[in-house]
Amino acid sequence: MDVERAVVERARSGGDALEPLIAAVWPEAYRLALTVLRDRGLAEDCAQEACAAIARSLPSLKSSDAFAGWSYRIIVNRALAVARMRGRVEMAASREPAVTFDRTDAIDLYAAMAALEPLARAIVILHYYAGFNSVEIAAATHLQPSTVRFHLMRARRALRDALEPREPHSGKERVSDVR
Amino acid sequence: MFDEPRIAAAMQKIMLGIEVPPVPFDAVQRRIESERPHDLRRFYVAAAAVAAATVLALPRFAPGFTQTIEQQIEAIGHWTPPPPAPASVESAMRSQAGTLAAAEARVAFTIVPPAGLPQDVVSERIVTVPTGVYSNIAHRWSVGAPAVYFIYKRASGREFTLLADRFDPREGAPSKRIFDADERKWHDRFSWRNGDQIMSAVAGDGFGAAEIERIRAAMHGALVTGFDTHASIVKQYRLP
To answer: Both ends of chain A: CA-CA distance in Å?
Structure first.
């Protein structure tokens, strides 16, 4: 998350100074929530909650340099809380978000991630997008690092199974599009 | 071969390809304003279900108990308490003290009264109070069915409460622990079923876990395993 230190510092005074921070956080909060929840309405609600929580909790942030990781933790926890509340989020076509990218790996990965549980999706995003290691993910998700590594291993396996080209007689279908 | 760098690159494309709606400054500001710390002092008890999670609230005079489904109290900032109930709901939550028979007439479940109470119990009060129900889905408060409070005074002067409510499978099991909003610490919560009644007790200053277990055993109640998750409904119980 690319938020200037000065923006974080100014936001600590609250009021109007929060707006630049919220503007900077909002896209990432929405994207992350949407990728975990796969529902635009839920993602928007979740991202709003996360932005509000970040604004409220800002005084407890010791160092503005740690803002990115700290805010990712808040966003992910919000998204996971919503996912737990709703139970397994259905992957019905009508729930799929508007996502535009090349018909390349991304589209395959996006489709493959639909088969993962929200927690596994959050872990994958934190690892591959936010660059968290297993210890950092563990701190963010209140899991043990070994549990995170286990989830990550299973997620990798699931993604590979879904993404690797179908081999002759393997019986596997390649996910080739977002439904 | 779909290796790690390709997953990372694809993940970047996914995230950057998502169309982001305009920044909802006003909505975020409203949420900031509506989640002030005083809301955390409201009293809730959590319950979770397999399909539709529910939060129940446990009654207390003071200190108040807030129970969420989340175990981590530091995550209390990650759980959004409902907004205060409107005056119409608050005013409907009036307590009515009376006999067991009077309570039975007011509730929609078969009351199984407590048994196996500590020997130093010197008095008992039975009170019914309608619950406040908040839907996290509809974002709306409503008045729920009454719950029954068995309030006991011990020789030492301390009181403890057993809460009986109708067991609704849609609400599922209550959560494992309860957070004392005033003391800012967690307590274990125990729940058991007798038919369509679910009874809850919190180990605290009035009695201990062993005494609660003796009550449950004497009632032949089926222990209900609690959950730790978020909920779609919040029930607010007000101590009489």
So the answer is: 29
Q: Tell me the residues of B at the A interface, defined by beta carbons under 8 Å apart.
A: 1-2, 4, 6-21, 23-25, 27-29, 31-32, 35, 50-53, 70-72, 75, 77-80, 136, 229-232
- Report pLDDT for A29: 94
Closest CA to B176 of B188, B160, B194, B164: B188
Which residues touch B14 (CB under 8 Å, ≥6 apart)?
A35, A99, A101, A106, A109, A110, A113
Rounded to whole angstroms, the Cα distance separating A50 from A70 reads: 11
Please write the tens of the pLDDT for every residue from B45-83.
333 322 222 333 333 322 233 333 333 333 443 445 566
Q: How many domains would you assign to chain B? A: 1
pLDDT, tens digit, for every residue of B123-150?
889 999 888 777 766 778 888 889 999 9
What pTM value is reported for the model? Answer: 0.49
Q: Which CATH code for domain A5-163?
A: 1.20.140
Residues 6+ positions from B40 with CB-CB distance below 8 Å: B66, B76, B81, B181
B151 strand-pairing partners = B125, B161
Q: What angle do CA A168, A174, A175 make, to 5 degrees?
A: 175
Q: What crossing angle do the helices spanning A118-128 and A145-163 adopt, rounded to 10°?
A: 90
Angle ∠(B191,B197,B202) on CA atoms, nearest 5: 25
Residue type, B43: F
Q: Which of B19, B34, B78, B233 to mutate to test the interface with A (most CBs of A within 10 A)?
A: B78
Nearest residue on chain B to A143, alpha-carbon basis: B72
Q: Under an 8 A CB cutoff, do B31 and A48 touch?
A: yes
Domain range spanning residue B84?
A: 4-236
Q: Which of A2, A25, A159, A142 is nearest to A80 (CA)?
A: A142
